[in-house]
Design a protein that fits this description.
By secondary structure, the protein is α/β, with parallel strands linked by helices. 43% of the residues lie in helices and 7% in strands. The protein has a 4-stranded parallel sheet, sandwiched between helices. A hairpin with a 2-residue loop joins strand 5 and strand 6. The longest helix has 30 residues.
C-alpha cells in the first residue's frame, strides 16, 4: 500500500524484534540497524555501477576495424562481424620447443602468424583466434621429447584438451558456428581430434561444429612437394639406415629444422632465424641449400603460406559437407 513500509527479514540475518532495532522514543539505532544500512549502501553502489556499465548490445560509435585477428578487435567489432555473417573462427595451435641452433623456440607460433591470415581469406567470413602457444611437447617429469631441451614448455594432454575445449565453447557462446582447429606441430594433432569429436557429439542437436583439419599438417607434409617444385631439395648427410638422404623429414643432419619453417618465420622477422649471425659465420645455409638472399627466402615463405591456405580451405569445405 502507498505510504506503508514493508520490512522483510533477510535470510542471512538473525531473527530480531523491532524493539531490538530501536528504543521507543529515542529511536537509538542498534548494531543490526547499522549492518542493514551498510548492506543497503553496498546494494545501491553495485546497482549504480551496473547501470553505468556499457551493455553487450550497445551500438558501435565508430567505424569497424579491419583486422582478421579477433584479439585485435573490440567486443563490438567481434559481435557485429558475427551478426554480419562472419561465423567461422580459426584456432591455430603452435608450441614452444627447441628447433636447433638457428631458429627461435616459438617457431610454430611464428609460422601460424604468417599462414593464418591467408587461410582466413581463403576460407572466407572468418576470424582468427589468439594462437594457442602452449601444447604437449613431451613429459615434464622426468623429461623426455623436446622437454629435454632448455626453453621448451609442455602441457599434459588433459590440460591441452581442457584448454581447447573451453576456447571452443567460448566462441560458440558468442555465435560462431564453424570452429576450425589446426595445428602446426605433430604433438598437437591427437588432442585437437579428441576435442573436436567430443564437442561435435555434445553439440549434435545444435548448429555449431568443430572442424579438426588434419590436412593442414599432413597434406604434402612440410610442403616437401611444393619446395621440390621450386627447385629446393634438402639433403640429410647421415640419413637413418634404409632411408633416402632427400626424404621428407623434420629432422635432418641432427637438427629439428626445415626450410619450410625458416621461410615462413622469416616473413615475420629474419632475426628469428638468426640471419645476420649466420651470414657473419658463413652458415646461412640449411641442409645443403643456400638461403641467401633473405628477401628471396621471405618471398618463398609468403608463397608457402598461400599454398597451405589453399590446402586448408579445401579441407574445410570437405569437413562442412561431412559434418552437416
Amino acid at each position: 500500500m502507498p505510504g506503508v513500509v514493508h520490512w522483510q527479514r533477510l535470510s542471512f540475518l538473525p531473527a530480531v524484534t523491532w524493539e531490538e532495532w530501536a528504543t521507543v522514543g529515542r529511536c537509538t539505532i542498534r548494531a543490526p540497524m547499522r549492518a542493514i544500512a551498510a548492506i543497503l549502501v553496498v546494494f545501491v553502489s553495485v546497482t549504480v555501477a551496473a547501470q553505468d556499465r556499457q551493455p553487450p548490445d550497445a551500438p558501435r560509435p565508430i567505424a569497424m576495424g579491419d583486422s582478421l585477428w579477433a584479439e585485435e578487435l573490440t567486443f563490438m567489432e567481434v559481435r557485429d562481424r558475427v551478426r554480419g555473417g562472419t561465423t567461422t573462427i580459426i584456432v591455430g595451435t603452435g608450441g614452444v620447443e627447441q628447433n636447433g641452433p638457428y631458429v627461435a623456440g616459438g617457431k610454430h607460433n611464428y609460422v601460424l602468424q604468417t599462414v593464418l591470415p591467408p587461410i582466413a581469406r581463403a576460407v572466407g567470413n572468418a576470424l582468427i583466434a589468439p594462437i594457442v602457444k602452449f601444447v604437449p611437447e613431451g613429459r615434464i617429469e622426468p623429461q623426455d621429447g623436446h622437454m629435454r631441451y632448455a626453453g621448451t614448455i609442455s602441457l599434459e594432454d588433459a590440460t591441452f584438451d581442457a584448454l581447447l575445449t573451453d576456447i571452443c565453447r567460448s566462441y560458440k557462446a558468442h555465435g560462431f558456428i564453424d570452429i576450425i582447429l589446426l595445428g602446426d606441430s605433430g604433438g598437437n594433432q591427437a588432442g585437437m581430434e579428441r576435442v573436436a569429436n567430443a564437442l561435435n557429439r555434445r553439440w549434435a542437436s545444435e548448429r555449431a561444429r568443430v572442424h579438426y583439419l588434419r590436412e593442414y599438417y599432413t597434406e604434402d607434409q612440410w610442403s616437401d612437394g611444393f619446395l621440390r617444385s621450386q627447385g629446393i631439395t634438402q639433403i640429410d648427410r647421415n640419413p637413418p639406415a634404409g632411408q633416402a638422404a632427400d626424404r621428407p623429414s623434420d629432422w635432418r643432419n641432427g637438427i629439428h629444422d626445415d626450410i619450410y619453417y625458416e621461410a615462413q618465420i622469416a616473413v615475420q622477422d629474419p632475426k628469428l632465424i638468426r640471419t645476420a649471425e649466420r651470414q657473419k659465420a658463413g652458415l646461412f645455409t640449411l641442409h645443403g641449400v643456400d638461403l641467401a638472399p633473405v628477401e628471396k627466402l621471405v618471398d618463398l615463405g609468403r608463397r608457402l603460406a598461400e599454398y597451405r591456405a589453399q590446402i586448408t580451405a579445401r579441407a574445410f569445405d570437405a569437413s562442412k559437407k561431412r559434418l552437416r
